[in-house]
Backbone:
């Protein structure tokens, strides 16, 4: 295993810290996955790509990583901040007259499919909230027993004021407790809470609520925050190494996870918190209400008024990686098209670099070995430095530039340096960054080659070489391509089904 | 919706019965899915294809089908008959030093991938046993409250003798209660049971058992049979329409499901029980110990000493469909290769039939319309008759034979009959049987088209039309195909990686 020093910007401290896993050589990582009540969109892609990179780089260095990413199929309320509102999945189910688990399954399948297309590795464990009711009830009972929660009319709330007597509430998000305790409006339907800042651990099911379980407090369903605490602790232990998610989850979701863990086990759950930043579209926040909300299938098909064309999954992946995960990204047709060109160049470089040969005698003046080796090292250094993918991409472009010099015989390289170059370039581009040529390039080529052949045939006809043009037509017919000469132009179609 | 009479061989009565869903136009179906501790194999394929066909045909007729297929990720003991032995998944996990849920996730992902390759539609809901502990505990408590189970040293068993006082035990499998009560050996470690025929609803976790949950009876895990009862009832209600599975599951698993449902709710769970038969390989029962156990990935790659070549998923699917689900199938290279040829013929027929044109004037002597319409009707009749896929395939071959007569202008067909032919042939082959051409035929075409283009270019060079041949070379270079003129002949290679 490579023993390199990795630095992670820990959202909890606001500082870059050296990453030291609890158990040498092993990493436990938990990332908040999707709520499966709608189409996977660009926001899902950014978070998934961000932590896919962490997963991939740690594995690349030889760590054994257990990566847990959950599926929220219950308990995510629409009015997240105040814990009120209708369960998102149940609402959608009623609209579609489906069993809520059928809706969840549908969108879970779609999410998995889209993630696979983005070349995101499946997590080691993909637990569902509805599948961990026992574990959530167990944890709530511990919090109640420790006096940090109270039951009220069949629901259970975390008592933020009580919690704050012993622990600091707001340490991750930087929220000030006083503001939270006094700033929140007392909303209707919150009468059961001692205080508006308290959040639900368990919610009583209203009559007709279609997702509910038996609990010590009657029929109900878990609050949104408790699932991630229960599932991360179950599969990764307490504490565990890395917890990731989108920046929008810092408060209340991750703040609540920290509180739940202290309240139940008197222990901070996570050693390194990582948060990816958000995305905009042409400078605007994406939102369904603004009509600039683009699903991943729309990106891949181009079927959206704001899109000039369809974009390959690898292009979207590359655009995400062109920014550091802590920065915002603006999606625009221009940025996507640049990403398409840039990723295409790096992919072409694979063959160019694989085809290079080492020089038996190095020319001390033009030898590039040292420069190439230090640029290879730079790929690692940039990833070690809080997973700085844009800088790693820049180093790959530099390697490609140097390789082109070698290709044109304007420099020399030693055998060892070449072998490092080849392994590093391919390793970082395809294994670490996960940029692969997804198009079977031959699929795309057939129409282009056919176009050339049809053009040749047209020229022959214009020059009245009919025997020749007929010969081409017959040869094509023999392999199942039917050419039809029409007034304007000749067309062709495939015979086979 | 087509209102046709469908007949299902109900394993419970041993007779073909007319299928009448509980709610008109809607069907609830539950099928026992895989235990995810190993590679998906041919047995999984047969069961999945069998019930995929039921799902597809009912949907084809316009039924709204909720199809639930579970994932057993806990509770399946190695010694199934006696409920002893080590939990299969936990054992594998210890061997591989993995979290058991990580093993389960790995094989679940593999199962889903293999099923997708076999063109098996994903079920509407795919619940996991570990995700329904609450529901299983609830049901066990009901059985206890009704007096049909007893607790013994932290485990709970169904009391078969007590159950048999009120209900018939063995009605599905035809087992005789007396034999069960007196025939079973009293095995070691079964001392907690009143009687060897009793089966576990909940098992106490031994020290160090890595999958366990809190329950009213202490830490433990559910018995294998209770999961299917709890999950089918949760998502489909009680009773529901169809329950499917392999014939080997009749006893004890499905018998136990019936008993659990009566014992908890005084109600038979299922109206139509369907069981698919088993498969042999070259006439031998498949088993890991016999070395003739072939996984699906081995079938697809050909990487097994008993396989002469690799077989496409569609070939395996077709071979399964060439037998009625109630018959055994023998897998052999010969049978697979015949299935490959036969499915290829039917697939080619799609284009042939789509390209037919109707006759304006029918020749009363040679008109095939009536014969074709009755053969189309036969496709439905055979599927209506307990999903008789081999007979449906025979009817499709007959349609293809008639279509070939039409193609050679040796018969006529009316416009209406042609349109029925086209819709029926495609509908049954691709939608109902799920036989699709998985090879992108265009992939194969590129080298053939390139050969023609290279030949054209060679001719041009022979005729000293160098500007023309250079133009072709440059056009190809522009799309990434490099032509090299060598002494013997010109060659080309692809630029892209």
Residues:
């Amino acid at each position: 295993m490579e023993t390199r020093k990795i630095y992670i910007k820990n959202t909890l401290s606001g500082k870059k810290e050296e990453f030291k896993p609890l158990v040498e050589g092993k990493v436990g990582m938990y990332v908040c996955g999707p709520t499966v009540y709608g189409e996977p969109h660009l926001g899902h892609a950014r978070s998934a790509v961000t932590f896919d990179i962490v997963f991939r780089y740690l594995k690349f260095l030889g760590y054994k990583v257990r990566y847990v990413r959950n599926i929220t199929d219950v308990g995510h309320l629409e009015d997240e901040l105040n814990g009120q509102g209708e369960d998102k999945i149940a609402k959608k189910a009623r609209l579609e007259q489906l069993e809520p688990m059928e809706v969840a399954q549908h969108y879970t399948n779609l999410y998995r499919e889209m993630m696979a297309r983005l070349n995101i590795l499946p997590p080691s464990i993909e637990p569902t909230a509805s599948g961990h009711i026992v574990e959530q009830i167990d944890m709530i009972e511990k919090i109640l027993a420790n006096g940090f929660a109270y039951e009220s009319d069949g629901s259970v709330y975390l008592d933020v004021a009580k919690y704050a007597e012993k622990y600091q509430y707001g340490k991750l998000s930087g929220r000030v407790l006083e503001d939270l305790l006094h700033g929140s409006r007392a909303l209707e339907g919150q009468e059961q809470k001692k205080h508006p800042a308290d959040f639900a651990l368990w919610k009583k099911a209203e009559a007709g609520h279609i997702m509910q379980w038996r609990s010590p407090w009657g029929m109900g369903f878990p609050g949104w925050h408790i699932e991630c605490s229960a599932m991360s602790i179950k599969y990764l232990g307490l504490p565990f190494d890395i917890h990731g998610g989108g920046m929008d989850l810092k408060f209340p979701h991750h703040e609540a996870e920290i509180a739940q863990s202290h309240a139940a086990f008197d222990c901070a759950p996570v050693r390194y918190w990582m948060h990816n930043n958000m995305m905009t579209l042409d400078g605007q926040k994406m939102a369904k209400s603004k009509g600039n909300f683009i699903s991943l299938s729309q990106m891949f098909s181009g079927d959206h008024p704001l899109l000039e064309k369809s974009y390959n999954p690898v292009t979207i992946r590359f655009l995400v990686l062109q920014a550091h995960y802590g920065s915002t990204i603006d999606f625009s047709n221009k940025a996507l098209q640049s990403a398409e060109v840039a990723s295409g160049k790096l992919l072409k470089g694979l063959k160019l670099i694989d085809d290079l040969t080492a020089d038996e005698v190095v020319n001390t003046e033009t030898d590039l070995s040292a420069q190439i080796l230090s640029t290879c090292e730079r790929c690692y250094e940039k990833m070690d430095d809080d997973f700085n993918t844009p800088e790693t991409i820049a180093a790959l472009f530099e390697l490609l530039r140097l390789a082109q010099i070698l290709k044109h015989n304007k420099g020399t390289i030693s055998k060892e340096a070449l072998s490092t170059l080849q392994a590093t370039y391919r390793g970082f581009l395809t294994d670490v960054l996960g940029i692969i040529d997804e198009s079977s390039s031959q699929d795309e080529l057939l129409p282009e080659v056919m176009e050339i052949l049809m053009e040749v045939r047209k020229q022959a006809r214009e020059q009245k070489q009919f025997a020749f043009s007929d010969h081409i037509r017959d040869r094509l017919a023999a392999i199942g391509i039917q050419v039809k000469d029409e007034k304007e132009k000749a067309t062709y179609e495939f015979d086979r089904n």
User: Anything to note?
Assistant: Chain B touches chain A through 54 residues (CB under 8 Å).
